[in-house]
Predict the 3D structure of the following.
Amino acid sequence: MGERRSKGAGDGALLLGALRTPALLPELAPDAWDRLLRLARRARLLGRLHAVLSASGDLGRIPGRAANHLVAAGNLARHRQTLVTWELNRVLWALDGVDAPVIALKGAAYVLAGLPPAPGRLFADLDVLVPESRIRDVEGALLARGWYQKRLDPYDEHYYREWMHEIPPLRHRERETEVDIHHALLPRTSLLRADPARLIEAARPLPNKAVKVLAPPDMVLHALLHLLLEGDPQEGLRLRDLLDVHDLLGHFGRDEPGFWEALPRRARELGLMRILYYGLRHANRLLGTDIPDGVLRETASGAPSLPVRSLMDQLVPLAILPEVGRPGPRVAAARWLIYMRAHWLRMPPWLLARHLSYKAWLQMGARRGRARPAPRPQDPAKQRP
């Protein structure tokens, strides 16, 4: 176990070192490059390494085979970003005449606003936020102009419509790009609350664009919610989400007047101080994010008890750092515990038990050959608005 732990720690240290001090990458030995590429691919950060080395002019100083992998990843990231930004263009066209603000989220927002997380970032879906009062108007307009919703069973339909913070995903019948329409950042069932009306009210317009993005503190808090409340027990926490937070903090902390004072204040207003505490703590510990001491002291008010804090200090690095091979028992356990913690925050216990039991029953049916047939797309013309 000690050997496996050492190996996992070495893998994590290699990737973190590449992210924290990319200027040292040209000195990396070929065998280390082989491990680094595997780790970065697993964490979906190959495009990030390509963007950093291209910007510094060091891409030509690394082994040619490694450079080829990074160039391909950079090309893929640019292609995906083009697809998603074009999809947003078409969504805005379809919503012309619908009186509802449209706020781009996550990757699309970073690209449109020209923020540091954008170069090399890999994403495939378009996420937008609209007021819940206009969700049916938005959905109906898209269904009428070429998007469709996969047929869902009654449980999944109820799951989205009654419990979640978004409607079922929509796809365009020709482009097949997925669009997630959110009316909040957190499920209705979540123990946490973040009033979407406040987020929409504070959203900022982009120059020459009919779309907005979240205000800087809200954008950071959303990235932290995505980091700490999403994911799956196999992948664990996503290092690329923590890197988004690191980039946003560095950018807004430098270029946005009053940002460091506004961030903890906004977290307190939205009831997300513990989320902010964890995010700042682990961005600083893992990526060396520069955070003012006063902000760290202020957010310490959101810290859990010492035993919980100590446990999370052990679980987060295990759950967030990829490994070259199969994860060891400690890593697998950490990812499962973090996953269960996220679900605990997303759903009350009785609903969580019901939901997980239903999903387990579906998996058992699939293993026994009784899986449901793959849903067929409905004709958009027959979709109800």
